[in-house]
Amino acid sequence: xxxxIDPGTGSMLFTILIGAAGAAIYVLRSVWVRLKCFFAGGKxxxxxxxxxxxxxxxxxxxxxxxxxxxxxxxxKRGESVLYLTxxxxxxxxxxRYEHVKTEFIGEGNRAFARMNMLxxxxxxxxxxxxxxxxxxxxRGVKWYVHVLHAANGVTSYRMFGTDYYDxxxxxxxxxxxxxxSLETLRHLPAKECVLxxxxxxxxxxxxxxxxxxxxxHETTILLAPSWGPSSLLNRFxxxxxxxLRGTGYRIILRPHPQSLSSxxxxxxxxxxxxxxxGKLEWNFDNDNxxxxxxxxxxxxxxxxVVFDFALIFDRPVIYTDVSFDKExxxxxxxxxxxxxxxxxxxxxxxxxxxxxxxxxxLIEKSLSSRAFAEGRKAAAAETWAHPGQSIPxxxxxxxxxxxxxxxxxxENHGE
Length: 415
Known about the structure:
Blueprint: H1 7-39, E1 52-58, H2 64-76, E2 81-85, E3 100-104, H3 109-116, E4 120-125, E5 141-147, E6 167-170, H4 173-186, E7 192-195, H5 199-211, E8 220-223, H6 232-235, H7 237-245, E9 250-253, H8 259-262, H9 264-273, E10 280-282, H10 289-293, E11 297-300, H11 305-312, E12 317-320, H12 339-347, E13 348-351, H13 359-368, H14 370-383, H15 390-412
Parallel strand pairs: 1-2, 1-4, 2-3, 4-5, 5-6, 6-7, 8-9, 8-11, 9-10, 11-12, 12-13
């Protein structure tokens, strides 16, 4: 063998080649348009009609809780929408609408290649990194809008995550201040920042309101870790579960779905060591709503489920100590601490290796803490604008901005 390319380098080279090919196509297309314009006497042609007035794009089926209610709302309003997904098993592909069309556009670079040549008036997406990596702004799109998919700061994205969107749908005033600070530091034009709320949390809230209060039950602790070497199960594992079993509370143990494949040996060992009985339940549901609904306290690590549980259900949480290097993220540009790190101590108790033995005491304190209850309410007020009303707010904004764009086009064409 004359040479060897490791998989990581090979993937990087493939991405570079795809990007170079996309750039070449973009340049050739641009030259062709300019030539047509020149031979037409210097007047720019109006070009092709958009594929749809509104396009919704997601790189993962995980965000269907954002787009399903929004598609329902746009369908009700009779607005034409094209929903594009990079997940072949996205639940939205099974939906049937009159005005909303759904389409799987491939995974990875194939999906971005489609997006890079898109024609639309307004594109709404939950995917960060527009015009940073493979996903480039298309000259056929007039306006790009980003919507948040979790109750945390916009600076928690990888660096430059939202810089090249035209508008951001945010959920708290502190996020607007962070965006303006980044724009100043990077000499960027000001984006439209709209306090729209959190569709993901609104969807869970609607399900909770529909079901009503949980029936009377024994106190239940939900252990819902993330996965990887820093996760709860990897760090504290059997010792933590032993301590929880000793509390006498009912325990729901819900591993992260990725653990079932990436950490199968760990999960198998724990399931054998701690089989289900009247006090311990292993939960592998695709949807975490039922486990959240039935629980009185959540123990987790650095995960957005902490805020889903604390702010929607208004119940206490225990979180692990957070060691977070913010340098690769937009937060690395700002001196102040990230909102999520400022907020966690206000809404719950911190679990560390040093206080693991005192976990029963932390649970008792958290279940009855008035300070944590007040902290949850304050956090919700800071990061959850328009609770339960985000969908009509977003739909109103999308139709309003398209109206502005259409009016501007009419003025430019002398109509």
